[in-house]
């Protein structure tokens, strides 16, 4: 039961597409949707350097991979902080349901 609860929590935590479709109030956007918007904005700025700034040399130095990795850490942070408290239930559920030989 705890395993299913953990998987469901992670599923809904990582869901940004429903926010894209249904949520119009910006104060209710989930963290993942805001991170996708930031990444898309940075990508747009990188592709349109001439339109984005007076000084295109500054725009070429925008982070890409490092920003993606930082966003991944921010997105995983709350799950990683909560998981150790539920780990014993997770392992217990896996071992009880395992095939014994």
Automatic annotation (TrEMBL):
The superkingdom listed in its UniProt entry is Bacteria
Q: Where are the transmembrane segments?
A: 67-86
The record's InterPro entries line, in alphabetical order, gives: MetI-like_sf
- Single GO cellular component term: plasma membrane
Identify its membrane topology class.
Multi-pass membrane protein
Name the keywords, alphabetized.
Cell membrane, Membrane, Transmembrane, Transmembrane helix, Transport
Q: Which SUPFAM superfamilies match?
A: MetI-like
Gene3D superfamilies, from UniProt?
MetI-like
Localization per Swiss-Prot or TrEMBL = Cell membrane
Q: Which residues form the signal peptide?
A: none
What is the designated name of this protein? Answer: Carbohydrate ABC transporter permease
Q: Which source organism does the UniProt entry give?
A: Cohnella rhizosphaerae
